[in-house]
């Protein structure tokens, strides 16, 4: 049916056709601009998403490392407390005397130490515990 219709070649129809063509050109330019801006926005979103994932991975890694370092710090603090306690014990004369009597069978003047067969096993276990 549209094949049977012919355009009238007057000024009004030619202006309408030119106006229609200009509008179509503007719409093409607008569509191209929208597509360009959409592409740029999509690229920015993709880059930001990649950065977000990388930052999250880095934060997780740092959190694990921090936890490991805190555990090491806690172990070192416990070791320091044990060493300070041992140092205090070594400065105590009663403790040194007890160790000398139990582990090395030292005695005061006039004391006699009897060594029994069962004492050797108990003294070894005591010295390994201390």
From TrEMBL:
One of its GO terms (biological process) is cell division. The keyword Phosphoprotein does not apply. Coiled coil: none annotated. The chain crosses the membrane at residues 34-54. Residues 1-23, 57-77 are annotated as: Disordered. Pfam families: DivIC. Residues 1-14 have a biased composition (Polar residues). Keywords: Membrane, Transmembrane, Transmembrane helix. This is Cell-division protein divIC, putative. It comes from Staphylococcus simiae CCM 7213 = CCUG 51256. The lineage of its organism: Bacteria, Bacillati, Bacillota, Bacilli, Bacillales.
């Amino acid at each position: 049916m549209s094949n049977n219709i012919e355009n009238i070649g007057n000024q009004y129809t030619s202006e309408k056709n030119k106006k229609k063509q200009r509008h179509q050109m503007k719409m093409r330019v607008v569509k191209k601009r929208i597509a360009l801006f959409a592409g740029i926005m999509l690229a920015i979103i993709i880059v930001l998403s990649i950065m977000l994932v990388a930052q999250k991975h880095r934060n997780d890694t740092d959190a694990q490392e921090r936890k490991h370092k805190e555990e090491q710090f806690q172990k070192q603090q416990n070791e320091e407390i044990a060493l300070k306690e041992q140092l205090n014990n070594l400065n105590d004369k009663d403790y040194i005397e007890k160790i000398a009597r139990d582990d090395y069978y030292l005695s005061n003047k006039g004391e006699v130490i009897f060594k029994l067969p069962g004492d050797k096993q108990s003294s070894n276990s005591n010295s390994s515990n201390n």
